[in-house]
Amino acid sequence: MIKQQFEIPSGYKKWTYGLLAVGVVAFLAGFFFLGMSKDEHDQTRFWAVLLQNSLYFLMVCNAAMFFICALTLGHSGWQITFRRVPEAISAVVPVFSIVALLVFIGIIMGHQHHIYHWIDKDAVAGDSILTWKKGFLNPTFFFIWTIVTLGTWSLVGRKMRQLSRKADEARMGVEESKSYIWNNTVWAAIFIVAFALTTGSTVPWLWLMSIDAHWYSTMYSWYTFASTFVSGLALIALYIVFLKNHGYLEYTTREQLHDVGKFIFAFSIFWTYLWFSQFMLIWYANIPEETIYFKSRLQGAYRGIFWFNFIVNFVAPILILMTRGSKRNYAVMTFMSVLIILGHWLDFYQMVMPGTVGDHFTLGWFEWGTLALFLGMTMFFAGRALTKAPMLPKYHPYLKESLIHHT
Amino acid sequence: MTIKKFVVGSFDDEEVLFPAVKKVRKAGYKIHDVYTPFPIHGLDAAMGLRDTSLHTAGFIYGLTGLTTALSFISWVLTRDWIQNYGGKPHFSLPAWIPIMFELTVLFSAVGMVLTFCYLCQLAPFVKKHHFHPRATDDLFVMVIECTSKTNVQEAEAFLAAAGAQEVNVQLAEAGWWLGRYDMEKKLFDNKTETVTA
């Protein structure tokens, strides 16, 4: 039997609500024991963990829309049979935008200067480097640019999803197909340009790099992009395997999974390339104001996480995903996707924590609980978005290309 | 150097070729090869060819390149010709990684090209028999190798029934030999079609 419309399986619901329950309990406990604590260290831990998780999941879900737009611009047809999966994942972006905005408000209005050192006006006044960066690192610009960014992601993403829904309605003629594809191309191009100006450059500097306000790296944004894009691809692969196992996506074959696997493999290596390029230049130049970033990561408390991160996100993908068979195998792809999503979550952890909570970090109940909360939210909203559209855009002009796709 | 007998069928449509390949294999004929003007997805699977091992070879060449680079640089810079570069340790791995990467790519790329040429028997002056000159233009040419048990007339009839436009029997060299194509007269003398402007 062909299942056109997604109905959430009970196992999925159980996991979603389980994760949400654990997450909400952890969040409430965290709020009362850490967020409301008199101890500044506890407060910093609370906000740093929320910042890490909200930004990670926001950018991972947004990477799904980047995936769609990049492939649309490339006129690729192979993704049409499972296109509703990245669409559903990207539908979570508005939710996480609001969450991220609340976290930013909490940090900046709550004057959490251990997170963003530059919100402390007295410190900035007596600091020539921060004074020089004041035009970029100030709350007004931060909020304006953040709201512009989140709004653009949400609205252009919504437009792309609406365009996709048009392919459900009726068969299109040649001229109609042409203008449909052209429309898609234009909106995808708008998204890509917006994405390049935000995720590709300014936004990671503003949201994450400004934690280490004195330090800078021009590669940082690309590094963040690579990290979240590969996790977004892993999330798409997870959903494809899950839906295939539940009898959906009957036209998405191992050929499509193989290509998603190639993407994961390639972007794991791309991430490593940026990881190494950022590291090597700083290591070579050996300028104290730059090497300070790697001091706590390479020689301090984060040493273990730093190298574990490298093994999980580079050594494992390159060795395991190299063969053709592993990219076409559901079990291996599931394992690798989970590994990569967790690996890059840890990557974000080691990006945020050394500059905020410092060497006294704990990877304890609150960190894992918040991860559960955000995973549960992703599953809840992505699952809900999946139920709202047919699984196959059956009148899409490129559908045939996807059906006969062969790697 | 062995001369063998082949039954050659030319198809003008890949839609006809695919079922024909399946029928011919099912009937138990031995397909020598199928020559097509362009690569056709899925034809290798239809012909029952196994996956290539070229990528395994590439992985091994890559590892060889990596090992070569690492062992050579570390030998030079820690034993043979020790120098002080900006106070860095003699064994400074990060600085070598770009070179290790380059040699990995170089070895695997060059190695795979040469292996590919070897597997396809491609080299300067290596010549092979052309079953039909239009296989590089617009015809899909299926070649059946005759064994002692093959009934040639039956095979010809079978190919024609499967949709071949032209069927003929050729006695030809199965392997390769050395020669020069620009010295070859036969290919240019036998015109296969007349073009009128």
Structure write-up:
The complex is a heterodimer of chains A (about 400) and B (about 200). Chain A contains 16 helices and no strands. Chain A is mostly helical. Chain A has a domain at about 10-250 and about 365-405. Chain A is globular. Chain B has about 200 residues and is α+β, with helices and mostly antiparallel strands. Chain B folds into two domains: about 5-50 and about 125-190, Alpha-Beta Plaits (2-Layer Sandwich); about 55-120, no CATH class. Chain B is about 45% helix and about 20% strand. Chain B contains six helices and six strands, in the order E-H-E-H-H-H-E-E-H-E-E-H. Chain B has helices at about 15-25, 45, 55-80, 95-120, 150-160, 185-190, and strands spanning about 5-10, 30-35, 125-130, 140-145, 165-175, 175-180. In chain B, helix 3 (about 55-80) packs antiparallel against helix 4. Chain B is elongated. Classes of the chains: A mainly alpha (about 400), B alpha+beta (about 200).
Query: What's the pLDDT, averaged over the residues of chain A?
Result: 93
CATH architecture heading of the largest domain in chain B? 2-Layer Sandwich
Outline of chain B? elongated
Overall number of strands of chain B: 6
Gyration radius of chain A (Cα, Å) is: 21 Å
User: For this structure, what is the CATH class of the largest domain in chain B?
Assistant: Alpha Beta
* DSSP E strands of chain A, number: 0
Run of helices and strands of chain A: HHHHHHHHHHHHHHHH
Structure in a nutshell:
The complex is a heterodimer of chains A (407) and B (197). Chain A has helices spanning 10-35, 40-73, 84-90, 93-109, 121-125, 128-132, 139-165, 174-207, 220-245, 254-285, 288-299, 303-320, 324-327, 330-356, 365-387, 399-403.
